[in-house]
Amino acid sequence: LDGLNDTIFEVLYFDDEVKAFDNVAGTNLPDNYQVNTPGSQIIYARVHNKKAPNTCYATTDFNLTVTGLPIASNPGPYRECDTDITGLGLGYHDTFLLEDKDNDILGGASGLDPAMYNVSYHTTPAGAQQDNATDAIPKNVPYRNSRINSQPIYVRLENITDPNCFDASMSFNLVVDPLPIIFDEVIYQQLKSIANKLMSKE
């Protein structure tokens, strides 16, 4: 009503332009109108004077859009090799690039349209649920796991045009696989010789 007195004017909604103009009794939509399938529908609004509804009125229209709730696909663990085999780097990897998981979370080539959905990554379930910027991980910047060997990452998948339409139920692990250790043959033979000598003395 945009400031109009609601004791004088009323608004009725219709799913057809002709119905809105004709104002046929019983054809207006109920207040609790429900759309059960995703899509867009034009709704026609009629504002008229209650005492002269057929002569003093105006109509307009707007789009009623319902977006489907996105469902994140399970991307599986994100595995990388250990940064080092000893020291402070043991159990960590410095260059996890989380945006590499976007396509898997969207469901691949036959999944959700990346132009319609945003994927963000968080260090806590609450952060993903609430879209908390304080624990969001920049997905296009190399990331070092904060927990040794394995760290859970929590995903938020949301509709770009409607951030309230989201899924925060998915998570996956960053997994740091140990580097293979190559034994020096000379050292190995020396150790083997020492072991044999010890066994021969027994």
Task: Give structural notes.
- With 202 residues, this protein is α+β, with helices and mostly antiparallel strands.
- It contains 4 helices and 9 strands.
- Helices cover 17% and strands 31% of the residues.
- Strands 4, 5, 6, 7, 8 and 9 form a 6-stranded mixed beta sheet that branches. A 3-stranded antiparallel beta sheet has the order 1-2-3.
- A hairpin with a 2-residue loop joins strand 2 and strand 3 (52-66).
- The N and C termini lie far apart (101 Å).
- The mean pLDDT is 87.
Any descriptors?
6-stranded mixed sheet, alpha+beta, 202 residues, 3-stranded antiparallel sheet, 17% helix
Q: What does this entry show, briefly?
A:
The protein has 202 residues and is α+β, with helices and mostly antiparallel strands.
Secondary structure blueprint with pairings:
Layout: E1 9-14, H1 17-22, E2 39-49, E3 52-66, E4 78-81, H2 102-106, E5 117-122, H3 125-130, E6 136-137, E7 150-159, E8 166-167, E9 171-177, H4 185-201
Are there runs of 5+ residues with pLDDT below 50, and where? none
Mean pLDDT reading? 87
Q: Tell me the distance between the termini.
A: 101 Å
* Helix-strand makeup class: alpha+beta
Major beta sheet, specifics? Answer: 6 strands, mixed
Secondary structure: number of strands? 9
Round the Cα radius of gyration to an integer and report it.
Answer: 31 Å
- Portion of residues in beta strands equals 25-35%
- The DSSP helix count reads 4
> What general outline do the C-alpha atoms trace?
rod-shaped
Helix and strand sequence: EHEEEHEHEEEEH
Helicity level: 10-25%
